[in-house]
Amino acid sequence: QVGAALPVDVLTYEEKTLSAILRVISSGLVKLWSALTLLGFYQNRRCAFRVLQTSPFLLALSGNSRELVL
Amino acid sequence: VSFLIPECGLLPEVLKSTIADVGEYYLVRNLSVHELVAHEFIDAFVKKGSCYALTHNTKIDQDNTAALLPNGKLILSVDKDTYEELGLQGHPSRYSGKKVMRYIITIDLTDSSFHPDSKKYNRVLWALKEKKPLEFDFLMAWYNTGAEGSTLMSYFSKNQIQALKPKVTFSTLKDLQCPVLQSNELQGKPDESCSTEELFEWLGAVLNQVSLDNKSSSFLSTYCCPQPNTMVEKAFLCTITGFIIPEKIIQLLEQLCCYFVEPKLAYWLTLTVHGFADSPVSWRENEHGFHKGGENLYNFVIFRNLDYWLQMAVGTNDDCPP
Fold this sequence. Notes:
The complex is a heterodimer. By secondary structure, chain A is α+β, with helices and mostly antiparallel strands. Chain A has one helix and four strands; from the N terminus they run ββαββ. In chain A, strand 1 and strand 2 form a beta hairpin. In chain B, the strands form three sheets. In chain B, strands 6-7-5-4-3-8-2-9 form an eight-stranded antiparallel sheet. In chain B, strands 10-11-1-12-15-16 form a six-stranded antiparallel sheet, with helices on both faces. In chain B, strands 13-14 form a two-stranded antiparallel ribbon. In chain B, strand 15 (296-303) and strand 16 form a beta hairpin.
């Protein structure tokens, strides 16, 4: 840990869906979520992050009923 | 619902047929809730076998939601305005806070005082039919205990009913690092076996395709497979997605236990079941809410000697599972 920075793990990244799974210590969730929400530019290109699912359990991320496509 | 069998390349026939037998579920669009309270419906489905229904595409923290439990209870989770307009007796949501914004109404359809001429029945019917009609898209399933009579498909033929089959995906994972487990060592033993939490997280990693071998120089992720682990040449992963009823999951569980009847290389296998994030109840009839996440899931780890671990997980707005 360096200064006030938070260690974050990028567990997966899928280029096709442009989605990733990040891991952070639970006390850092709010900081990370806020940082992602407020990140509007990267290297002069506009971008936006949408949080699809959060859980303290990695296993819970493998099923998301809100994304159920019938 | 997912299950993972290490050291398995091909699924045994009996498991294949159990999966094929998981059965259909139905999507009924624009169904009024008062139709679920109608005595023809109750006599045809609720009292004969187990009938399950859940509103589709409704968020438990925002919208009105309804669910029919197999024990005959109809649960309505409604916002304050709907509750006041509906006029039925309920209680505030347990996850309300100071200003109550959500109420839960429970109607026992199989109660003896709920017969067609009772005051209770007439009031409920009036509230749902005339005072504040509620209409939703419902996911439904019915476990028929062999009784003759109509099916959901024929009963709701005048509504827009669609029969759906759960989606099944199979994959064989190659060269997978699997934790070593001992069924009686829940906390794990250093250098001998892994703990239940380590297994739970590892399983999450496998099902989400997280890479398990991270070099110490990798700056992307610090996750690695718990020690001690063994390299398994192949593992079979199957995922079934849909509105799956407990009776079918029990059949699947029984067949998975039978997997170990013949000698197998695997020491254990897992079965994971996820509940719907927007269901109004989880674990018996405990109220379920969606705070930052609506997880309610359980995981079985079945060992060769038929010992098992059952891990249950819930989110913030939930009661502890029994």
